[in-house]
Amino acid sequence: MRITRKAAFAAVAATSVLALAACSSSGGGTDDETDDAGINTETSINIAWNQPFYSANGTSITGNATANNVILYMLNSGFNYYDADLNLVADESFGSYEKVSDDPLQIKYTFADTAKWSDGTPAGPADLLLEWAAQSGKFNNVEAETDPETGEITNQDALDAGVYFDASSPAVALIEETPEIDGKSITMTYTKPFADWETAIAVNLPAHVVAQRALGIEDAEEATDALVAAIEGGDVADLSPIAKSWSTDWNFASMPSDEDLLVTSGAYKISEFEQEQFITLTANPDYEGDHKAVFNKVTVRYNGDPMGQVQALQNGEVDLINPQATADVKTAVEAIEGLEVESGPEGTYEHVDLQFTNGGPFDAATYGGDAEKAHKVREAFLKTIPRQQIIDNLVKPLDETAEIRNSFTQVPGSPMYDAIAEANGQGAAFDTTDIPGATALLAEAGVPAVTVRLLFDPANTRRQNEYELIKASAAQAGFDVVPYTVQTDWGTDLSNATSFYDAALFGWQSTSTAVTESDANYRTGGGNNFYGYSNATVDGLFDELQVATEQADQERILSDVEAELVKDAFGVTIFQFPGVTAWNPEKIGNVSKLTIAPTIFYGFWEWTAGEAASE
Length: 615
Description:
Helix 9 packs antiparallel against helix 13 (435-445). The two termini are 40 Å apart. A hairpin with a 5-residue loop joins strand 2 and strand 3. The longest helix is centred in the C-terminal third of the chain and has 17 residues, at 551-567. The radius of gyration is 24 Å and the shape is globular. Among the domains are: 99-203 and 206-249, Dipeptide-binding Protein, domain 1, CATH 3.90.76; 347-577, Dipeptide-binding Protein, domain 3, CATH 3.10.105.10. A six-stranded mixed β-sheet has the order 11-16-12-15-13-14, with helices on both faces. A four-stranded mixed β-sheet has the order 1-10-9-8, sandwiched between helices. Strands 4-5-7-6 form a four-stranded antiparallel β-sheet, with helices on one face. It is built from 18 helices and 18 strands. It has helices at residues 66-75, 125-136, 156-161, 207-215, 220-233, 236-248, 306-314, 327-334, 371-384, 387-395, 417-424, 426-430, 435-445, 461-475, 490-496, 519-522, 536-546, 551-567, and strands spanning 44-49, 80-82, 88-90, 95-102, 105-111, 180-182, 185-189, 268-274, 278-283, 297-302, 320-321, 340-354, 450-455, 479-483, 503-509, 571-583, 588-589, 608-609. By secondary structure, the protein is an alpha+beta fold.
């Protein structure tokens, strides 16, 4: 989905057009405390979040995660955004876009004069051209290979010599012709109609900085021209270092030494970053767009313990929280005097996915290529996952109406959910824990004892509790479920250490409402398909979905996709996240959370700062 994939993914993650452009805060300052950009330099806010930022490239396979994208939402601008009712709204202070042709589908993007990077370089067509080159996969001529024992890359020399962009978007791959640049405009031509073209591609990294780093060119304009020439000419010698820079340079988990990596196009810039502790964003005084900063400083403090976030809010260490919700969390925040508290369902859903090609218990290669035996082991394991018990023990105390989610692509209550959930067969197959059925399948497969390495966030209390319930249930059928030992951080390991875990327990959070958002999760080689899952029928159905504009057709196609996932024992969905958001109204006002990413960071330009927000 371009679902934010590693936290929530993931992907997861727009009333009327937002009426207020951000103006200077009234947060207790005087005219002497306001800079030339109209920003009150004395205002600051602290926000708690559960997973640290680790990449400024939110569209790479490595960096596409809610943990990164909620921060990048405040750092960078784009052609559109979602409003509070999830309607797409154009940000004309960054640029405009229009469909100039239906046959073939052609989209023209034009950059506004106010679209600029924080180093003063204008944002322009080269930035979008670079993203097309990365996301289309057109120029990739080598893939990363890893040692199954260590996870280390074994073909680094080939990667260095070839072209490898760490990205993949089925939507952008439909743009096969090199986009045409004309002044401040760029036009993209699709090979066929595409329903979600408005959200298919966006500006991501500064092309001039990528080129400066990759090609050793100091002048920004000269570097940009060289990058455009390399892409338009398919110059492998230049595209190789460009791809390497795009893929790796913007992955950092603490303050980088090179300030060029901190260049942004939006209202904020990174000013401080302590690994695993906090990241501080400071208002960009040179930003000329409509979404200006209200708070001069926004510090996001990392704490994976939900009750720890509540305690930090009570102590005044943070001013806004949206922790993983439990009944204890809700009770605790409601007992703290003076807070604003809101609760309700969120856009993230919990699920378990299985590895198909990692040499583990669910891989046919483990059984000499016997796909049916591997399928029986997968199905047996899924029968042991106590979905209803997880909901009863961990979710219903917070939301007594909570039910099992039975769709891989639809949020409960959405127009297509009921029909797709009924058609896919997941409820009939896995709603009830079936230990005798699981035991029988393992016996048929001739593997009565199986070890399953489960990847999950070890710092997340609810995930720890889910793991214990899964372990106890699965043990009754002969599965020994053990926690995967995190190599770097669990989010990075989700895509980079696939040989080391057999199943993953995490959440997807959408970043858009696109009907094709799930494509990257289940398509062969899709950017969010970390498990080697491949089904030609599913791939063909997603091809059909790309051009389906009628809801009835979309519902039929997605029903068929999900039925294939259930038949293949790909994994199971468990529940829609319940949510609790709490904040101190003396520090921050006008908080409005979206059910997709960027969640609580939505509309930061419309936040208000109270008297207590001054430093």
